[in-house]
Fold this sequence. Notes:
The protein is mainly α.
Amino acid sequence: MSSDEGGGARAGLGVGGAGRGLWVEEPARRRRMPDSVRTSAVRAVLIVAVTLTQATITFFLTLTGSWLALPMGLGAIAGTIVATWGVLDVWITRQTWNQRYGVLSEPSSTARSRRREARRASRAAREARKAAAPRIPRQEGPLAASGRYSTR
């Protein structure tokens, strides 16, 4: 029995030698949803699935002329209302989470650059006022006549 025929450690790896392992990590394409949003999304999917199943059964009961068609039809209508609520719950939970935790403060954000520009403009205006009207020195001011300040 040659090394190629046996079921050894290299069996199933192919001709080239080192092959891919059973578990290969791949980077996620999208970020994971927050837990609260994921919980409401799972709940909505389950409710929608039950409602669709109920509507299908109602359709077949109606075709056969069964007396269960009416109660199942009313249940399907109620299920549609609940499923709509479930989908809206996902949307509202997602919006709430984004409002509470979704704001990222980055140095390159628009608000920060606007504040920086406003500070530069006010600083320039202050320096322009200083240059236009210099302050009165103490020895020449209104308190100089009181004799409290020495004129050197």
